[in-house]
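Sequence in, structure out.
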Amino acid sequence: MTEFENTFIDSNNLLRGRIASVDEVEELKRKFKDLYPSYLINVILKSRVIGESFSLSYEYDQSEMGVELEWMTPKSQIEECFSNYPGISALKLGFIPVGICLEGSGDPYFINTNDKEPKLYRVPHDSVVEDSISIDQIEYVCELKNLIKHLA
């Protein structure tokens, strides 16, 4: 297990969400093929992260905007990447959605499967122009493991 996985799994006593069902994980694997990372599967199968709310103050958010997000359900992840923008365009770049903004924008939060360590990014809806994402509008937020330190 990676440090990231252990951080979430070891924090189960703090989490109020739910774990993914085997059927949900199978659907993620079927839809995303090999793009859905195994470390993320381990987290959603072993920690109560789905539906959990996280809050990150401006001082810990590298984008300096603050974060209020809810961890997506597997169904929401699939819908974001296969039916909605910016998810459709983000998936082409290796981004997998993990959260949705709770502050009104509805902007999704993603991990980039190309990163060595899981990091959290905000991808605003208006970053998509003609089915492509303007890379300079993708906002780096934090290392994903740091979210667990800032539960809402």
